[in-house]
């Protein structure tokens, strides 16, 4: 069985908490991602997503110069590098998350996306289940 350290992306681009929304959006465009970890050094503080920028930034009329820390999500679910891929897929389905930061001794060491796990789950059925659970609206989640 594969563990997350076998499938995670280790070269993760981060933002600092005092980077602004514009800088975060430019990084998202440059790296073609929808979420970027927010770190001080290698210590994970939160994640900023394209949705955070829209919902907590633009929709609340915050300027592009607003600090990322003002709109980031800071209540994160993380995993350690030794977690089995199937367990991570199940956890992501239950918690309805698409990106899972991988932390070792409180340091960000990688990130795993839903797509990464769908490729590496032990059966196609598990990958389909994870995708359907994560994509389901919360009010119909079982």
From TrEMBL:
Checking Pfam families in the record gives:
CBS
Alphabetical list of SUPFAM superfamilies matching this protein = CBS-domain pair (SSF54631)
**Which part of the chain is the CBS domain?**
8-68, 72-131
Listed Gene3D superfamilies? CBS-domain (3.10.580.10)
Q: Does the keyword Transmembrane apply?
A: no
The answer on whether this UniProt entry bears the keyword Plastid reads: no
Do you know which PROSITE patterns this protein is assigned to?
A: CBS
Which UniProt keywords are listed?
CBS domain
Q: What's the protein here called?
A: CBS domain-containing protein
Question: What species is given as this protein's source?
Answer: Alteribacter lacisalsi
Record lineage:
Bacteria, Bacillati, Bacillota, Bacilli, Bacillales
